[in-house]
Design a protein that fits this description.
The protein is an all-alpha fold. The protein folds into 3 domains: 2-53; 66-110, no CATH class; 130-189, no CATH class. 72% of the residues lie in helices and 0% in strands. The termini are far apart.
């Protein structure tokens, strides 16, 4: 219980002042505040304002090179946990490097975008194969993109054009039926299926 209390015997303002005095040197600020390095790292890691003042991650310089982090991120497609395993550090360390070093942040963003593009490509391939789960997901995906980019008013207008149907409110069975109907309509358009006249 005594050790827990020691963590809170100094305020965030005390830490901020120590970091300013030491020009962001975490180790020197730790000595000024009078706490353990672990305690200081925890506090700095939890308070973004303090993290911005801190210019060091380990000691007075970064422990891992930018090249090592970038290669690990590319190798793991931007997966932070796997990157930490490859580098041999904590997950929080990878996040800190991403936050602090623009080149690493850029590679991380590229990798996550590439992974999203790959996922969408695989989704379309599954739609082309006629897999019902993929059709439902693609409908929801495009509906959400439309809402994101077009805005609420355009979404309402599109819903009115669809007969007022909210696709997100449909059950799996209803979406399957809708897909079957759309396939039948496509067949009529291509002349593959002849219209049945009663």
């Amino acid at each position: 219980m005594q050790r827990q209390w020691a963590q809170y015997q100094f305020s965030n303002e005390d830490i901020a002042e120590a970091l300013k005095q030491t020009e962001g040197d975490l180790d020197a600020a730790t000595k000024i505040v009078g706490c353990s390095r672990t305690t200081m790292l925890r506090r700095v890691g939890r308070v973004p304002e303090l993290a911005e003042l801190c210019t060091t991650v380990v000691g007075t310089r970064f422990k891992y090179s930018t090249e090592v982090m970038i290669n690990a991120l590319r190798q793991t497609n931007g997966n932070i946990s796997q990157t930490a395993n490859v580098v041999g550090c904590a997950r929080l360390t990878v996040i800190t490097y991403i936050d602090r070093i623009p080149e690493i942040r850029e590679v991380y963003m590229e990798e996550t975008e590439r992974l999203k593009d790959l996922a969408v490509t695989r989704l379309y391939e599954a739609v082309d194969r006629g897999e019902p789960w993929a059709v439902r997901l693609a409908i929801l995906y495009h509906d959400s993109l439309f809402r994101l980019y077009a805005g609420e008013e355009a979404t309402k207008q599109a819903s009115a054009r669809n007969g007022g149907v909210d696709l997100e409110a449909l059950s799996d069975e209803q979406l399957d039926q809708l897909y079957a109907i759309s396939q039948r309509i496509e067949g009529y358009k291509e002349g593959v299926i002849e219209a049945q006249v009663d």
